[in-house]
Write a structure and sequence with these properties.
It comes from Thomasclavelia cocleata. This protein is α+β, with helices and mostly antiparallel strands. It has a single domain, classed as Ribosomal Protein S5, domain 2 (2-Layer Sandwich). The chain is 34% helix and 31% strand. The chain has a 4-stranded mixed beta sheet, covered by helices on one side. It has a 4-stranded mixed beta sheet with strand order 5-6-10-7, covered by helices on one side. Strand 5 and strand 6 form a beta hairpin. Helix 1 packs parallel to helix 4 and helix 2 runs parallel beside helix 3. The protein is globular and about 50 Å long.
């Protein structure tokens, strides 16, 4: 079973995250930020991951610590669940149209963390979710899971649609990348022999 679990407590957040890469798309999400809960639910569903996220954060300050710390935690859970990465497909790419918006996510489970984030958001908040925190979440996720992550909005005008397309395209690309290649299930997909 490919499961990662992390409990993390700081003066700003108390977090529990569990990620099962071979799940059924079930989720139990409670971050205290309604829109973010919705996005993580979509991430689990479209990735076919089972995901538990519980967070008690200092939302009286703002959403920064909650969202960034959950990116850190989810990234670490992905890294743990992948183990030595033996048998995985490694690469994933997916484009999601969400009404007028179109977003593509490409990723490499490379062991070399990097984020390219070309997303143009034009409002400060969606509900209580601070839109500038989307980039911080994906950066924390990429750098703590050790993946190379490229997120590119091709076009769009509705910020809800754009961010939703980002989460869905990430989920679908990741689902493809973590899939076990049955023909190479004992192989690490790198000429170096390690990812």
């Amino acid at each position: 079973m490919r499961i990662g679990r992390l409990e993390r407590e700081t003066k700003e957040t108390k977090i529990l995250v569990q990620l099962d890469l071979d799940g059924e798309g079930k989720s139990e999400i409670d971050t205290g930020i309604g829109f973010f809960d919705h996005m993580l639910t979509l991430f689990a569903f479209h990735g076919n991951f089972d995901l538990i996220v519980k967070c008690d954060g200092d939302l009286e300050v703002d959403t920064h610590h909650t969202i960034e710390d959950l990116g850190i935690a989810l990234g670490n859970c992905l890294k743990e669940a992948l183990g030595d990465k033996r048998g995985i497909t490694r690469y994933g790419a997916f484009t999601i149209p969400m009404d007028e918006a179109l977003v593509t996510t490409d990723l490499d489970i490379s062991g070399r963390p990097f984020l390219v984030y070309n997303v143009n958001l034009t409002c400060e908040r969606i509900g209580t979710f601070e839109t500038e925190m989307a980039e911080e979440f994906f950066r924390a996720f990429a750098f703590n899971s050790l993946i190379t992550l490229h997120i590119n909005e091709r076009y769009g005008t509705n910020n809800h649609h754009i961010i939703e397309a980002v989460f869905k395209s990430l989920a679908r690309a990741l689902k493809e990348a973590v899939k076990i290649d049955e023909l190479n299930k004992d192989k690490i997909v790198s000429s170096k022999g390690v990812l």
